[in-house]
Amino acid sequence: MSFPASSDLSRGSSRLRDGGREPRQSVMIQSGETDDVELAPGLESSTKPEPKPWAHLLAGGIGGMTAAALTSPLDVLKTRLQSDFYQAQLRSLRAAHPLPQSHSILSLSRSAGVHFAETVQILRSIHVHEGWRALFKGLGPNLTGVVPARAINFYVYGNGKRILSDYFGYNPDEAPAGIHLGAAAIAGMATGTATNPIWLIKTRLQLDKSNASNIPGRGRQYKNSFDCIRQTVRHEGIRGLYRGLTASYLGVTESSLQWVMYEQMKRVLARRAARRSADPEHVYGWQDFMEEWGGKLTAAGSAKLIAAAATYPHEVVRTRLRQAPTVPAGGGKVEMKYTGLMQCFRLIFKEEGMAGLYGGLTPHLLRVVPSAAIMFGISQRPIP
């Protein structure tokens, strides 16, 4: 007489204990059994899916377009204050409202108020003397530049961070600051090289106005963007479209600093969210909602504020180089006032002092800080 194997007996007794039902398959993985193991249906990993490479491109483009359209008047004002064309108007305003010489807290606050009043007054004068359309002058090339610029920047940064993390063996979500810095530098240089001609045209259109010439009956120097391109190439050659590129490369420090700080702030927010999720007694409330949606906006705005204020002089130098003003050279000839990056730095400091290197800082910060928050908010995925 044969007896059933012990394994059959075990299965039979198990069925009896479970009322005749087959036992449920265990999903517990024993030590040493991690190879070729599949989880039961419905128990797949809950890790976030890897974003598609093109998602960075789309997110950056949409966010950049929205931010540029909403902050265009401040961009026009910033460009004019950075140039030397409007310095006479600014000097007359400061002569009527001299800044306090004391360094007390009260004087500093009054000085900040005067700067803000100057910004509002010049913005109003543009509207009164040139019409509301002047507040959006250069918006066409601005949008033409912002959309590809932000798309390229987000695309190269997001995928560059992933590639560098894979190469050096890091998890992209936990990569060190060096990975973020390298990806941001590569993204900044790629963006600056690809879009410099667009920004040059935008700058020259924003500095162009009906009374720019003293010749009676003569209107604006440039009819439109295409005319600006034609005249620039005819008088300065193809290289003229890349004036200010060296200053744009110097500006890579700003975007790199912004990305690194934003990543670190975002990581802190993610850790706080993870601790709340791990707490079984935590009740989701409006504070969590505000931190979830407002945290990244605040992080993006704060990172941009610090980065822009720390590296602002390169913005002024870049605008001057793109503006390409001329000075008499004798014999009825003229020559370029600014011939290079360092020469431009030295000449501005010599003629206008340190304040000249920070011309237009107030409208610049009023524009780029909310612009960064809007851009990162519109492209909320989070990025990258």
From TrEMBL:
<keyword id="KW-0812">Transmembrane</keyword>
<keyword id="KW-0472">Membrane</keyword>
<dbReference type="InterPro" id="IPR023395">
    <property type="entry name" value="MCP_dom_sf"/>
</dbReference>
<feature type="repeat" description="Solcar">
    <location>
        <begin position="55"/>
        <end position="163"/>
    </location>
</feature>
<feature type="region of interest" description="Disordered">
    <location>
        <begin position="1"/>
        <end position="52"/>
    </location>
</feature>
<keyword id="KW-1133">Transmembrane helix</keyword>
<keyword id="KW-0496">Mitochondrion</keyword>
<dbReference type="Pfam" id="PF00153">
    <property type="entry name" value="Mito_carr"/>
</dbReference>
<feature type="repeat" description="Solcar">
    <location>
        <begin position="291"/>
        <end position="384"/>
    </location>
</feature>
<dbReference type="GO" id="GO:0005743">
    <property type="term" value="C:mitochondrial inner membrane"/>
</dbReference>
<keyword id="KW-0813">Transport</keyword>
<keyword id="KW-0677">Repeat</keyword>
<feature type="repeat" description="Solcar">
    <location>
        <begin position="175"/>
        <end position="268"/>
    </location>
</feature>
<keyword id="KW-0999">Mitochondrion inner membrane</keyword>
<dbReference type="InterPro" id="IPR002067">
    <property type="entry name" value="MCP"/>
</dbReference>
<dbReference type="InterPro" id="IPR018108">
    <property type="entry name" value="MCP_transmembrane"/>
</dbReference>
<dbReference type="InterPro" id="IPR049562">
    <property type="entry name" value="SLC25A33/36-like"/>
</dbReference>
<feature type="compositionally biased region" description="Low complexity">
    <location>
        <begin position="1"/>
        <end position="13"/>
    </location>
</feature>
<dbReference type="GO" id="GO:0015218">
    <property type="term" value="F:pyrimidine nucleotide transmembrane transporter activity"/>
</dbReference>
<protein>
    <submittedName>
        <fullName>Uncharacterized protein</fullName>
    </submittedName>
</protein>
<comment type="similarity">
    <text>Belongs to the mitochondrial carrier (TC 2.A.29) family.</text>
</comment>
<feature type="compositionally biased region" description="Basic and acidic residues">
    <location>
        <begin position="15"/>
        <end position="24"/>
    </location>
</feature>
<dbReference type="GO" id="GO:1990519">
    <property type="term" value="P:pyrimidine nucleotide import into mitochondrion"/>
</dbReference>
